[in-house]
Write a structure and sequence with these properties.
The complex is a heterodimer. Chain A is of the alpha/beta class. Chain A contains ten helices and ten strands. Chain B is mostly helical. Classes of the chains: A alpha/beta, B mainly alpha.
Chain lengths: 255, 338
């Protein structure tokens, strides 16, 4: 079954200098529990595509054409209020740079607890704290009780990204958007985080939209892959089909 | 990253205290020397125009009596010996102990400056939030326009305008002094005298800080963590209050601590125009008439307030932004409190 279906989606930015078409007539669907990798060069519209689905774009960006369906229900014209209910419950997101994505002034425990509280307001303070500890264990952080009281600047990049993932998982999402989640990390840490995401997907059964410009990472993660160029999604298919043969030259080549 | 907690907070306090004493000492040397190097004759402060009728010998004796004959270092040593015992000498102009002269007026300035500071502090935050939430919408633009206009009007001109309108034409409010003769104890009367000078202090400074808050907040709303916070399902308003405000507050607080002398300076102007008996008028007069002893105490007092303001900002920053925490071992306890 498809969790998310995007049909003929076009997104433009309207500036005084004119219209900039960032996403052009993109269609794809995301099956439950699968990892769909969206790959393309910097600036090809990958992030804008995701943010337009989540309605996180600034006001100057507008959806021009197309429809978005979540579990068969159209959400294209959902209001900000309605989207707020989806964010943090059905949708979650992991960001490129964990060090700036976390609020520098709050302990990571408090930031995860906030997400837990929004998702499960019925939990007591105690239960919420237990849930935070569970989440931290789930993303593979040792001594979660101690870590929860620390601030982002006291964590390494990999550790911080695990915390961001923990925040995303607090939502218990049906769809997780991962926007280049390993680009800002060291290579060693990169593979750890990728392993973690694969493992979590298996454990929790969520669908993942994984954005990257790195073909190796793409090949490692993908169940299916979509290739983007200049705002157009020009190819989509199973991983073997895409990576088994030639890689389009704008993405380099892997053997 | 946790620091060793062995006696750190205690050490920090001692450290800050030493810094405070050193700064005040340096300030006293500086003001002492500069005031004596400045042109002008302190005898005028003491004797007024009678100086002109005094013979050279009489002037010499007078100077000697006031201790103005020796070299500056000798004078300074004598001054500081008295100062540590709490004796700051007499005011040449008022011919009374400096402490008495100031004590009678400090309350008035603290009332005006303190009230002004609090009102500016709260209103600026409120206005800043109001505008930041409505960035570039009509309400934001209108407030920004009015704000810029008021902050461009010079304090003294605004004061005169207010006096003209409210005390001369409308006769609603008194235009000078801190209380009416014979009504010293009446709070209502005091309040009425405060309204105009307070308006000048607030209007003259408010927008500068409100605009600062607005722009700091808008800067924060473009930070990455805002997206993450919104992905948790928070509304834009919630993100602004719970996340952005928290990040903007430290710089606002340190800004406001630095604003302290700025606003104090503003009250000095207002005091002078409204003939309000505070230390602002004293500062102005003592510098003008070479009333050395008075000038010293007024400067040191102002200096201490500025330094204490900065110290307060530093401590507050540490409480809000953990990265700026003073050297304490407080991280451990933090772990229990999230």
């Amino acid at each position: 079954m498809d969790v998310l279906t995007v049909k003929d989606l076009s997104v433009s930015f309207y500036r005084e200098s004119g219209e900039i078409e960032a996403v052009k007539h993109v269609s794809f669907s995301l099956r439950a529990g699968e990892i769909l990798v969206i790959m393309g060069d910097t600036g090809c519209g990958k992030s804008v595509l995701c943010k337009s689905i989540l309605k996180l774009l600034p006001d100057i960006a507008k959806i021009k054409t197309g429809q978005i369906f979540l579990q068969g229900k159209e959400i294209t014209h959902y209001t900000e209020k309605e989207m707020q209910k989806l964010r943090g419950t059905v949708f979650s997101m992991v960001f490129q740079n964990p060090m700036t994505a976390l609020n520098p002034c709050m302990s990571v425990g408090a930031q995860i607890a906030e997400a837990v509280r929004l998702r499960n307001p019925e939990l007591s303070r105690r239960e919420r704290q237990d849930r935070v500890i569970n989440l931290l264990e789930l993303v593979g952080i040792d001594h979660p009780g101690e870590r929860a009281g620390q601030y982002p600047f006291q964590l390494s990049g990999g550790m911080a990204q695990r915390c961001v993932i923990a925040i995303a998982l607090a939502a218990d999402p049906a769809v997780l958007f991962a926007d280049e989640p390993t680009t800002s990390l060291d290579v060693g840490v990169q593979s750890q985080v990728l392993e973690l995401l694969l493992e979590l997907r298996k454990k929790l059964g969520m669908a993942v939209i994984f954005i990257t410009h790195n073909p190796e990472v793409a090949a490692q993660m993908a169940d299916r892959a979509a290739l983007m160029r200049d705002g157009e999604l020009y190819r989509i298919g199973d991983a073997e089909e895409i990576f088994g043969k030639t890689i389009p030259n704008n993405c380099g080549r892997i053997d | 990253m946790r620091r060793k907690s062995l006696g750190r907070p205690y050490l920090t306090i001692v450290e800050e205290l030493i810094k405070f004493v050193l700064s005040i000492f340096l300030l006293s040397v500086l003001v002492f020397t500069l005031s004596r190097l400045a042109p002008g004759d302190p005898l005028y402060a003491y004797y007024g125009d009678r100086v002109e009728k005094m013979s050279m010998e009489e002037q010499e004796t007078a100077r000697e009596r006031l201790g103005l004959q020796e070299s500056i270092p000798v004078q300074y040593v004598r001054w500081i010996k008295g100062a540590v015992r709490g004796d700051f000498g007499i005011s040449y102009q008022y011919k009374r102990d400096v402490k008495e002269v100031i004590a009678g007026r400090l309350g008035n300035t603290l009332l005006l400056g303190g009230l002004g500071f609090i009102i500016i502090f709260v209103l600026a935050l409120f206005l800043g939030l109001f505008c930041a939430r409505r960035e570039d919408q009509r309400a934001d633009r209108v407030v920004c326009g009015i704000g810029t206009l008021t902050s461009c009007i010079p304090d003294f001109w605004l004061s005169l305008l207010l006096i003209l309108v409210f005390s001369v034409w409308l006769r609603w409010l008194p235009g000078s002094g801190a209380y009416s003769v014979g009504a010293e104890g009446s709070l209502a009367d005091r309040g009425r005298h405060l309204i105009l000078p307070l308006s000048v202090v607030v209007l003259g400074h408010l927008w500068y800080y409100a605009y600062l808050v607005r722009n700091r907040l808008l800067e924060e709303t473009r930070a990455d963590y805002v997206l993450l916070a919104r992905m948790k399902g928070l509304s834009g308003k919630q993100v602004l209050y719970r996340h952005c405000l928290r990040n903007a507050l430290p710089s606002y607080l340190s800004m406001m601590a630095i604003a302290f002398p700025h606003i104090l300076g503003g009250t000095y102007v207002a005091e002078t125009v409204f003939s309000y008996p505070g230390i602002g008028t004293l500062a102005y007069e003592s510098a003008r008439y070479q009333d050395y002893n008075l000038l010293m105490v007024v400067s040191l007092l102002t200096g201490s307030m500025v330094i204490l303001g900065n110290l307060a900002a530093k401590l507050l920053n540490g409480r809000i932004d953990p990265r700026m925490r003073l050297k304490t071992g407080a991280f451990k306890e933090e772990a229990e409190r999230w």
